[in-house]
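Lab notebook, bench 4. The sequencing result for the construct came back, and we need a structural model before the next group meeting so we can plan mutations. Quick request posted to the team channel:

Model the 3D structure of this chain.
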Amino acid sequence: MAGRKNVRLSLAGAQNKLAIHIDDKGISLPLQNSPSTHILKPTIPRFEGMVANEVFCMELARKAELPTAKATSASSEGIEYLLAERYDRRLAPDENLLRLHQEDFCQALGFPPHIKYQNEGGPSLSQCFALIRSVSSTPAPDLLNLLDAVTFNFLIGNNDAHGKNFSFLYRTDSGTLTASLAPLYDLISTKLYSELSPKMAMKIGSKYLPHQVRLQHWQDLWNEVGFSENAARKRTLRFAQKISKILSASPLANPIEQKIATATSLRASRLSSMLI
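Done. Here's the predicted structure in C-alpha cell form:
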C-alpha cells in the first residue's frame, strides 16, 4: 500500500479513548459535565499487544523515576483495555472531584491540534525546552525530566512522541497559579509495528530516523536546547544505564514485553557505548 510506512499512530485508529468515572460503586460515564477519573483505551486488533505495550512502557518509565501517569490493563468480555488514572484531578475539602487545568505543548505554543509532527510544521524539541523555561514554575526539574523523557522515548522506540504528548499542569496554591510539566502519558513502542512511520515526531539534531542518530546529533540537540554538553552527556549516559539495569532485573510476562525489552536494551547499550 502506498505510503504504508508513513502511517502515524494517532492517524491509524489506535487512539480511541473514553473518559469514565470509577469509585466504590463501580464504573460509570460522567454526565452533565461531571469530571471523569480515568481514561479507558480499548485495544485495537490491528496492532497486536498494544495495551501490554503501553502498560509495559509506562511502568518502565515509572521505574526509571520519570513522572508518569498510572496505567493498568484489564479486560471485559474478551476485549483488553488500558485504564489510565487522570492526574489532572484533585479532591476538594468537601470531597468533590475538581479538574486541574492542563495544556499540551501544541496548545501552549499556538499550534493547531492537527499540526503536531515537526516535519509537518509542528513543534521541535528546541521549542519544547524553550517553552518550559518561559512557562514552568519549576523549570530546573522540568527541564531535566524532559531531557530524560526524550532519551526514554528514543530508547523504547516511541516515534510518536509529538507536541501533544507533553503538557503543563496548572495549580493554584495559596492564591498563586503555578505551572509544571505534567506526568508522561501515551508511552508506546511504535517501533514494534512495522506499518507505522519509522520517523521520530521530533528530530534529534538533524535526524528523524533513530538509526541515523550519532553522538554529533545528540550534541547538536543538547546545544539547541541550552544544556551544558558535559552535563547532558553524563545524565543521558546514566539514564541509559539505568534503563539497562531495570530491564535486566525485570520479569517479562509476555512476548510483547520481551520484544520491547530486547530492543530497548540493545538501543540503551548502543547509546551508552556512544556516550562513554
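The mean pLDDT is 93.
Will bring this to the meeting.
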